[in-house]
Design a protein that fits this description.
The protein is α+β, with helices and mostly antiparallel strands and 292 residues long. Helices cover 15% and strands 22% of the residues. The strands form three sheets. Strands 5, 6, 7, 8, 9, 10, 11, 12, 13 and 14 form a ten-stranded antiparallel β-sheet that branches. It has a two-stranded antiparallel ribbon with strand order 1-2. Strands 3-4 form a two-stranded antiparallel sheet. A hairpin with a 4-residue loop joins β9 and β10.
């Protein structure tokens, strides 16, 4: 009987000690903190189970490709583009681009967005090279003898020539936009898209040809206070770094009209940066300006 009582007391004491140990582990110890800032080695991750440290990746469905992407007359927006720059590169007014693409806010365009940069419903007309029209004189019948009488005057072949001016209807003549000294010429390899003309602050900047003001502001990085004139379906001219703009958008100007005053906005010195663009592509202004 005594042995049985001792044995029961032993087991009661053992169970009490185990219960006390369990309580202390719940109240006195902190759970280990998992460091999710360091990646878990993939070798320690069970097969088929993603690492706990890897954040969930949300994969959005791919954006459907615009059917007009890459087609003539369309442009895909790239990082850093603005509607004004796209207009300059395509030879169009940014207002026209906004209208053609239904943009309520011209400042909101997205990378990858495909924009129309050619007038809608305007067919692309390829002008064939002019050929001379020749009307040959009729040949005499075979075996006919030549008469001894006075020679009959036969009309010589009629040749109709076409003058270059009639062929290239959109070509125009430009005048120098400033009387200052030429500082730098056009050099596409050095990203010089026009010519730089020196002068003093406030010198007159003149329209190089008749045209319409399609931009007059300072929102295009690298150009400062800028004016862009559209002369026809082929040509734009740009006048950059002005200190004062004297014309407004949609205003018509005449060749030689003062449109701005020379300055140094967004430039290292007072100068006029002048560009001629043909269908949006920069061309050497020296080839279009008269010799001084």
């Amino acid at each position: 009987m005594a042995k049985r009582m001792l044995r029961c007391a032993y087991w009661v004491a053992t169970l009490s000690l185990l219960a006390l140990a369990g309580c202390s582990s719940k109240t006195g110890l902190r759970a280990p903190v998992e460091d999710r800032g360091r990646p878990v080695p993939l070798a320690n991750v069970p097969a088929g189970q993603p690492p706990d440290s890897a954040p969930p990746v949300s994969v959005s469905p791919p954006t459907p490709t615009d059917p007009n992407a890459g087609k003539p007359g369309y442009y895909t927006v790239r990082q850093g583009d603005t509607l004004t720059r796209i207009g300059l590169e395509s030879g169009q007014s940014y207002r026209d681009l906004a209208r053609w693409n239904g943009l309520e806010n011209p400042n909101r365009i997205e990378v990858g967005q495909v924009l129309r940069v050619a007038p809608p419903d305007e067919p692309v007309v390829t002008k064939p090279a002019p050929t001379a029209q020749v009307n040959p004189a009729p040949l005499p019948a075979a075996g006919a003898a030549s008469s001894p009488g006075p020679a009959k005057t036969s009309s010589s072949p009629a040749i109709t020539s076409v003058s270059p001016a009639a062929v290239v209807e959109d070509e125009i003549s430009f005048s120098w936009p400033s009387k200052g000294e030429l500082l730098y010429g056009f050099d596409e390899s050095k990203n010089r898209k026009g010519v730089d003309i020196g002068g003093a602050s406030g010198d007159a900047v003149l329209a190089a040809a008749d045209g319409k003001v399609v931009y007059a502001d300072s929102g295009l990085r690298g150009y400062g206070k800028l004016i862009i004139l559209k002369h026809n379906s082929l040509y734009l001219t740009a006048y950059a770094h002005n200190q004062t703009l004297l014309v407004k958008e949609d205003q018509m100007v005449k060749k030689g009209q003062k449109i701005a005053e020379m300055g140094s906005t967004d430039a290292d010195r007072v100068k006029l940066h002048f560009e001629v663009r043909k269908q949006g592509k920069p061309v050497d202004p020296a080839k279009y300006l008269p010799a001084r």
